[in-house]
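Final report, Chapter 2: Outcomes

The project's central promise was a pipeline that accepts a single protein chain and returns its three-dimensional structure in a standardized token representation, suitable for archiving and comparison. That pipeline is now operational. To close this chapter, we reproduce one record exactly as it appears in the project archive, with the input sequence first and the structure output second.
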Amino acid sequence: MSTTPAASPTPRIPARPGGTGGSGAGAAAGAVGGAVAGAVSPVLAEVVRSGFVEGRHRGSLVVLAPDGSVETALGDVTAPVFPRSTGKPMQAVATLRAGLDLSGERLAVAAASHSGEDFHLDLVRRMLAEYDIAPGELLTPPDLPLDPREAEAYLAAGRVREPITMNCSGKHTAWLAACGLNGWDRAGYLDPEHPIQLLVREAVEEAAGEPVAAVGTDGCGAPLMAISLTGLARSFRSLVLAADDTAGRRVADAMRAHPEYVAGTRRADTWLMREVPGALSKMGAEAVQAVALADGRALAFKIDDGSSRALGPVLGRALERVGVEGPVVDRIRRAPLLGGGVEIGEIKATF
């Protein structure tokens, strides 16, 4: 495993394309909101308590056939959405194209929304040291571990929120390392016009097969680039079908070989990539999910209200729609409701 930046030619920094939407949160809100104004998404999941439908989660979902054609479309799958952390594989592609020679667990954590388990934080600390990056250079907001159990243990140990604990710290560390390799300004690495972010935009648009519709700011402070759910599914499909040794394939292979570094020991992405050969899976905040299989089948969905409790049931049913079955699907889609500590209902998919 290489931990030293490989010598490489100066990466080509694409010019920011015009006419594809403004930058900043205000432009993003107008573009995305306008695209879905007046639309009513279908119900993808119901909350059933004691036999009574207590609530409903609406959203949109697309399934692509092995040849890349749209096999199933529920709701508006062409309107732009913020992919949130499902965009991290493309952000990692940009890091490789910037010349940073990452592989194995290091490349996986560069594409991760890690749980904040000890092995995640240990790896990020090693990467900071290897690339001579001061922890204070991380612009991730101080946070607790993403995994609730890890967060409880973290607080019980008397520790406080730190930038390194935030689930995007691996991605930010990789970006800072790429900046150091190329002599780019580290302090401004989250500016949408920064060379690393221009490479990200190029990677997103290339993989999605469509222009970025709007640019906003993600929870970690990074530029966030809106594409359609169909474009998101195409992106994941492109990574698993990419030729050997391309940046996209390297990212997909690292994520699939080290899924625990992409997510964590108690996360659905890890279970799926570990138990379904060739599967590439990544969740994002606001209940966004994308998956691709080795034969080119792919899916992407978003729950309108952003509720993560609907992710598992919808993902489990969507996996069945692309032909994945078995214990891992049952495990992912199980979302029991409790009453008095006893299971009295469930959240279940409706499609």
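Archive annotation: Confidence is low (pLDDT under 50) at residues 1-8, 17-36.
This record, like all others produced under the grant, will remain available to the consortium after the project formally closes.
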